[in-house]
Specification:
- It is a single chain.
- The chain has 308 residues and is α/β, with parallel strands linked by helices.
- Helix content is 35%, strand content 18%.
- The protein has a single domain, classed as Alpha/Beta hydrolase fold, catalytic domain (Rossmann fold, 3-Layer(aba) Sandwich), CATH 3.40.50.
- A 7-stranded mixed beta sheet has the order 1-3-2-4-5-10-11, sandwiched between helices.
- α7 links the parallel β10 and β11.
- α4 crosses α6.
């Protein structure tokens, strides 16, 4: 009887440990930290950008976690050359120093981008969103919330989960993040010793491989709600991912493709050689940059023709 009690307690402990490891304890809603940041403290190339075009179309570009608008600037410049307006936003806590990111949460990023979206809607008839990595997750939130404003979206290397079971396959893409609920109370920032992306833009990528745990945890927890909203999102969507991405599992993009309710779905999946990279920063990768820009151009041109 005693042995049964001990074993039962052990299993209860394990369930509790893994549950809190995944979800963490509830946290009060935090006020938005100071935004926008002091321009004198913003890193070189990390500032927001706006290109005013001549058409009725505007693109809202959203970067990823720990990144900067510079990651999407090449896409913005390309779209601007086509005559469209483009706004690339710097998310709260980003583009200065990693300590500024620690007190921020995912709902702060959503709130700020929603404000930008609503302001753009006062001046532009048709608005599209392009999101990279976490920026794509934010784009999905906005597409659900602002169905009448967002006319289409492109998701690049976008997660709706990092670990889990999909199509009978166990996905353990970021095992350490299974315990972010606990880690956030003991570690402020995780510094990963990965090979630095050997891009032509090294040094312009924000907080490279530095992840504030509590901020990331809030993002991870929000993904469950985003998955639930996919069947209610019906705007045209384009998906782009490198199947060798070490940061976001390709299964996450397949999940979006299969569960989003969009009638128009376009996907561009490819495999980049590993070359000691994470394979995540694909939008500035010379091997596929031109193909990605052409894919986005064809996708949004088709949507525009249906809106005019």
């Amino acid at each position: 009887m005693l042995l049964f009690f001990i074993i039962s307690c052990f299993f209860v402990f394990l369930i509790f440990f893994f549950y809190i490891g995944h979800k963490g304890f509830s946290e009060r809603i935090r006020p938005l930290p100071s935004y926008p940041p002091n321009p004198n403290k913003v890193l070189a190339f990390a500032e927001s950008f706006f290109f005013e075009g001549t058409s009725d179309f505007c693109f809202l570009l959203i970067h990823g976690f720990t990144g900067t608008p510079y990651h999407l600037r090449n896409i913005g410049e390309y779209l601007y050359q086509k005559g469209d307006s483009v706004l690339g936003v710097l998310l709260p806590g980003h583009g200065t120093k990693v300590e500024d990111l620690v007190p921020t949460r995912f709902y702060h990023y959503v709130a700020i981008t929603d404000q930008f979206l609503m302001n753009l809607s006062k001046f532009y008839k048709h608005i599209f969103i392009i999101g990279f990595s976490m920026g794509g997750s934010i784009a999905l939130k906005l597409a659900y919330k602002r169905k009448n404003i967002v006319k289409g979206l492109a998701l690049i290397s976008t997660p709706v989960f990092f670990n889990g079971v999909y199509l009978g396959k166990l996905i353990l893409h970021s095992p350490i993040m299974m315990f972010s609920g606990w880690l956030q109370y003991f570690i402020k920032v995780i510094h990963l010793k990965r090979g630095i992306e050997q891009s032509r833009d090294a040094g312009k990528d924000g907080y490279v491989f530095q992840y504030p745990v509590a901020s990331f945890h809030s993002f991870k927890i929000a993904l469950k709600e985003i998955r639930k909203k996919l069947p209610y999102i019906n705007q045209p969507v384009a998906l782009i991912i490198n199947e060798n991405d070490k940061t976001v599992p390709k299964e996450s993009m397949l999940y979006i493709l299969h569960h989003i309710n969009s009638r128009v779905k376009k996907a561009f999946f490819f495999k980049l050689p590993l070359l000691h990279k994470t394979g995540h920063m694909i939008i500035r990768e010379p091997l596929v940059e031109k193909e990605i820009l052409n894919f986005l151009d064809h996708f949004f041109t088709e949507i525009k023709e249906n809106l005019i």
